[in-house]
Structures are given as structure tokens and as C-alpha cells.
Write a structure and sequence with these properties.
The chain is mostly helical. The protein has one domain (about 1-55, about 75-104). The chain has four helices and two strands. Strands 1-2 form a two-stranded antiparallel ribbon. A hairpin with a 2-residue loop joins strand 1 (about 65-70) and strand 2 (about 75). It starts with a helix and ends in a 10-residue tail after the last helix.
Length: about 100
């Protein structure tokens, strides 16, 4: 189950965050499905969902911030699909899904 995988990777043992993590999973899944123009997530892209969900969880409280610096420590936040877009584009390419415009 995705929830358990994500909780293990985040080091979360309690049930308090389960609803929040499930919501993040569903929102992230919807974004991926919209990007690849599918209604079901292919098994081969599950790892992208897990990784992006973890990224989103870690950004809670920092929504909309590109970077921040506190006490000399600087943190930069990536765009949603940054670092994973090539996996999604490869999937689209391999499965001949057109993204963008189509010649008729």
C-alpha cells in the first residue's frame, strides 16, 4: 500500500498523518494522471507518485515559496515535477501519447 511505503520513508509510525498523506497521494496522483493523459496510474510510475508525495509532504507550510534562508541556512524548493518530469515524458514517449499539439 502506498500509504505504508510513504510513512516508512518519512519515518512516521502513527496514524495521525494518514488522512493528510492519503490526500497528498490523491492530489499528486491526479497531477500525474493529468500530465500523462491517463485514468489509471501505470505500475511503472508508482515510484514517481511515492517520491512526489514525499516531496509534497515535506513542503507543508512552505507552499508557494521558491527558496528561504534562516540563520545562514538556505533551502530551495523545486517545482512539482522537477527531477521526475523526464520519467513522465519517457513514459509518454514509449506509450506514444501525444502531449502538446497534434498534426492532422
Amino acid at each position: 500500500m502506498l500509504l505504508n511505503r510513504i510513512k516508512v520513508l518519512l519515518g512516521i509510525n502513527d496514524y495521525d498523518n494518514a488522512e493528510l498523506i492519503n490526500e497528498i497521494i490523491e492530489l499528486t496522483k491526479s497531477k500525474i494522471l493529468n500530465y500523462i493523459d491517463k485514468t489509471e496510474l501505470p505500475k511503472e510510475l508508482e515510484f514517481v507518485l511515492v517520491e512526489l508525495s514525499i516531496q509534497r509532504y515535506n513542503k507543508i507550510g512552505s507552499e508557494g515559496i521558491a527558496s528561504e534562508s534562516v540563520d545562514g541556512k538556505s533551502v530551495s524548493y523545486e517545482a512539482d515535477f522537477e527531477g521526475y518530469k523526464h520519467y513522465l515524458d519517457d513514459y509518454i514517449s514509449k506509450n506514444s501519447i501525444s502531449k502538446g499539439f497534434r498534426l492532422i
